[in-house]
Amino acid sequence: MKKLLAMLLVLVLVLGTCLAENEQAVYQHTSAGFSFTLPTGWELESESADGCLMTAHDEQVIIVVERTNVGAVVSHEDFLSIYAPMLLATYAQEYPGMETLQESEIVTVGDQEYIRQVIAMEIEGVPVTMEMNYQTEGTYMYILGFTVQEAIEEAKLELVAEETELVLASFVTAGGAAQTSASGNLSAAGETSASGSVSATGGTSASGSVSASGSISASGSVSATGENSASGSASAAGNVSASGSVSLTGNVSAAEEEIVAEEEPAAEEEGTEAPAAMKENAPTYTNERGGYSFSYPADMLLMSQDNVQDMLDNMTSEGYGMEGMDATVLQQNAEQIRRTDMTMLMYAGGVFNYNVVYQNVGITLNNELVLSALCPNFITQYQAIYPGLEMLDEGSMYTVGGKEYVTQSLQVKVNGMDMTIVILYAVNGTYLYNVTFTVADMAMTDEMTDYVNGAVALFAESFEAFAPTAQ
After folding, report:
1. 332 and 429: one domain?
2. 203 and 344 co-located in one domain
3. Which end of the chain is more exposed for a tag (fewer CB within 10 A), N or C?
4. Could you tell me how far CA 46 lies from the centroid of its own chain?
């Protein structure tokens, strides 16, 4: 009898162990408000406030799940017609030679509906296939990306497909739950690192991005929704550059129909024309690469790809080109000018400056589309960049000299200084131009106010767009 009881006890222990091993944990990300069933063997590599990164099968499979707030309610129709082509175009630009295996289409997995794209490319010399599944809920977009190395054993591919389906079928969101913690938690055993990136070969680094995952960005912003790089630094002279570049980059191979948003007409402001004295001696700058030209006040210092290196080469310790301009101010902006082909103009040592950036967004734009689809997203991203900002104008039309622009304005605090930022958006076919004017509030005397208004009007009156040479 004792032997029989002992055998039964062993059997119970064995069965209990097997059941425990087969029971799959549920991964919960508290701050981003999503959860899914965690396949056996998946390892959590890193978490951010908006998502997580995991690996499986000896790091030959990389999984990224991320949430981003696109700033506007996005239907499947909007996603398929606007965002999906931009995403594919962005991937094609980032990964030369990329092959689209599956165009954007709606798929159902269990009770869940996704928009799916499948692409193939090489990342760091490693051939991979990337399956991106997008789900929208209100203003939130959830991205579930699965990247698989082509070198993976064929026998494992079926298991990977089953695991992918398990995650997609069990994926649950909390309707954009409020962020209550900086990261999620794992109900199964597993250590969470504060950051980490996984390359195509599976190596982990200290950065917070994923090079072979299809992750849009570590911050949760999606490039096709308008990632705004309104970064800026303040110098001792008070220079703040708020570059208003929007990463809606990429060319769409298929012709896109013009998208016209059915919205009520936005409020329109009639701008004051530039002073005659300012116009009289105003130089004109032309950027053939970006396909634009404009006039600017003669006493403003212009920096561009065409002259920034000469300025650096000829700079003295006392300054260059204008009173109050020193090497620090110029060097802060030189790299961004080179990288983005930004044109920057500065006045009075930088207390007032503006810049022009451009990009090909891949679809034909008009002012109505910028107002209805892009402006809400820009607001969300400015809020992330400048906590506590005050929106002075969330989006309206600005007309001067018979030319129309979409405009936004905001007040921010940078390094303890109050700054006012005004942005003009101009469109030319598939090209979007962002013109960002920034001024330190402490410098806004009546005379400076007139000067700033005149410079804005001079730009708006004189801006011309033509066929860009940049591809």
Report:
1. yes
2. no
3. N
4. 20
